[in-house]
């Protein structure tokens, strides 16, 4: 039997947590996160029993719902639609592909911080040219993207754009794009049981062989070797 007073208190604190996400208040979110997770895990709200004898499926359903809620409150607080859409889609794929509850809790913490981070509330117009390029890379890495595409999107010459980017980040645009894709690939390998070919397509490669080659260049390991290493560490 669910205690009515405890339930009402949990909902009040949850609403306060959502408000902190909306306001981009990282300190408040960090201080409240342990309580929020404790409530979700304890079953005070009856959420983990919604799928009979399948706690993993129940947890996935909860986190997919919370992903949508975090997305809405972040947008309400000023996060641009491009960034919020990318985050919501990316986390939905990772949650759905997760095979362990611990992976879902890890990704929950990450998505809370990402949705709350004030740096993710700045629009493209508020950033330098190099920062605008970087933001476009971070929310479009899963698509075929070229230097010409970026220059056309920002209405600048590609030579000027590449020079400014190299000056700020000490690497080329394409080098950074590869790094972003590999870091995202690591996330999928760590938290899900998706096949390498599916991960490759999810992070912007149309060939699993090429993804594996680039992955090994950056990490010294093949995707499967990286996956095995992650499994051993848990």
From TrEMBL:
This is AraC-like DNA-binding protein. It holds the Pfam family HTH_18. Residues 131-229 form the HTH araC/xylS-type domain. Keywords: DNA-binding, Transcription, Transcription regulation. InterPro entries: Homeodomain-like_sf, HTH_AraC, HTH_AraC-typ_CS, Tscrpt_reg_AraC-type_HTH.
């Amino acid at each position: 039997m669910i205690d009515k007073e405890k339930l009402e208190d949990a909902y009040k604190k949850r609403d306060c947590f959502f408000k902190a996400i909306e306001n981009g208040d990282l300190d408040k979110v960090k201080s409240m996160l342990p309580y929020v997770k404790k409530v979700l895990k304890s079953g005070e709200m009856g959420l983990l029993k919604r799928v009979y004898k399948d706690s993993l499926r129940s947890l996935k359903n909860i986190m997919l719902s919370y992903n949508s809620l975090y997305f809405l409150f972040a947008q309400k607080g000023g996060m641009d639609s491009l960034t919020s859409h990318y985050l919501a889609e990316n986390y939905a794929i990772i949650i759905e592909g997760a095979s362990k509850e611990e992976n879902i809790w890890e990704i929950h913490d990450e998505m809370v911080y990402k949705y709350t981070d004030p740096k993710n509330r700045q629009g493209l117009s508020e950033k330098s040219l190099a920062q605008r390029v970087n933001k476009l890379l971070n929310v479009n890495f899963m698509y075929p993207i070229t230097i010409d595409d970026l220059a056309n999107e920002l209405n600048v010459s590609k030579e000027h754009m590449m020079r400014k980017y190299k000056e700020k980040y000490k690497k080329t645009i394409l080098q950074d794009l590869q790094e972003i894709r590999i870091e995202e690939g690591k996330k999928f390998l760590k938290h899900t049981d998706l096949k390498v070919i599916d991960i490759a397509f999810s992070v912007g490669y149309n060939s699993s062989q090429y993804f594996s080659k680039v992955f090994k260049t950056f990490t010294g390991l093949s995707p499967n070797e990286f996956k095995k290493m992650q499994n051993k560490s848990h």
